[in-house]
Amino acid sequence: MSSANAIRNVSETALWVAVYRARESERADALFRDHYAGRLAGDRGMQIAAALPFAQRHSWSYVARTWLVDQIVEREVGQGTDMVINLAAGLDSRPYRMQLPASLRWIEVDLPEILNYKQEVLAADRPACALERVPLDLRDTAGRRALFQRLGDEAKHVLVISEGLIIYFEADDAAELACDLAVPSSFRRWVLDLASPALLKMLQKAIGGPLDQAGSPLKFAPREGPEFFARYGWNPVETRSLLHAAAKSKRLSFGMRVLSLLPDPAGRKPDKPWGGVCVFENSGPAQHKIRQIKLKK
Fold first, then answer.
1. Which of 15, 89, 95, 209 has its CA 20 to 30 A from that of 3?
2. Strand (E) or helix (H) holding 234
């Protein structure tokens, strides 16, 4: 990437991903309509996307991820979720573009600069549900635990989303976040996207350089796959392959369609490239695991 187009920080990845949502929304057969994505991406997002040809060729994965998470949100809200907490919310516009009940509380948590930018761009728009933005660096352990406790006390049935976040974590940090999220009993479900070690290696080679330079290297892809989180209070209940979702929605090139005919390893074969969206169910706090993680540090 040229210095002018280089990703400056992890928040700018949200600009680039918004480009793919905007392009999908322009299709006659769009899987979703995000009429806010183009404004949110802006010229800066277009510059970054243009400088990442590998990501552009595989933009189907970002589209599939958005589509799958949309389906999960719609289903969980329909089954009684009264609060959605979106960690590292970035430029997600679901509270504006989805048909959500006005009674639903939607909490966006992210760094102050990205939330301020988003508030500025969407100042004239109204969300469908009650929206609260919380400026917080999720590396602030005390701050996030206090937030989780407050929100856990204010809701009965919470869905947590961490889309495009966990891959930037160290394994111990991912485990500690899982433990913290498992403490409030009202945090019922957690949806996140996960990569296999083989896919992580491919991504590091293809787009890792610009992210490394921005101080946001790609790190986390557990060999155990979704089962990694079972030790920390979250049992996997659903896995959805991005490749298979993209094939179903006819977003793949011929070569990728051929690959999609292979069986889905569901993230449990570390030597197979795999990326997917996983849903977890809260099995209760794992305080002993939190203590073990702290001892390692």
1. 89
2. strand 234-241
Each residue of 132-163: pLDDT tens digit? 999 999 999 999 999 999 999 999 999 999 99
- How far apart CA 156 and CA 154 sit, in angstroms, is 7
DSSP 109: E
Q: What is the pTM of this model?
A: 0.93
Domains of the chain by residue range: 60-296
* Residue type at 14 in one-letter notation: A
Q: Tokens at residue 238, please?
A: 């659903």
Q: Is the Cβ–Cβ distance between 193 and 277 less than 8 Å?
A: yes
Give the model confidence (pLDDT) of 123-132 as tens digits. 999 999 999 9
CA distance 61 to 37: 17
295 pLDDT exceeds 50? no
* Residue 11 DSSP label: G
Model pLDDT, residue 1: 45
Provide CB contacts within 8 A for 274, sequence distance 6+: 195, 196, 198, 199, 241, 243, 264, 265, 266, 267
CA-closest candidate to residue 193, choices 93, 282, 96, 267:
267
Average pLDDT over residues 223-240: 97
Distance CA(158)–CA(76), nearest Å, equals 9
The model's pLDDT over 165-181, given as tens digits with 9 standing for 90+, comes to: 999 999 999 999 999 99
Within a 13 Å sphere around the CA of 199, how many CA atoms are in the beta-carbon half?
A: 26
Q: Which residues pair with 109 in a beta bridge?
A: 87, 134
36 vs 117: CA distance, rounded Å: 13
Query: 60-296 is classed in which CATH architecture?
Result: 3-Layer(aba) Sandwich (3.40)
Quote the CA–CA distance of 292 and 297 in Å, as a whole number: 9
Q: How far apart are CA 133 and CA 14, in angstroms?
A: 16
Per-residue pLDDT, 5? 56
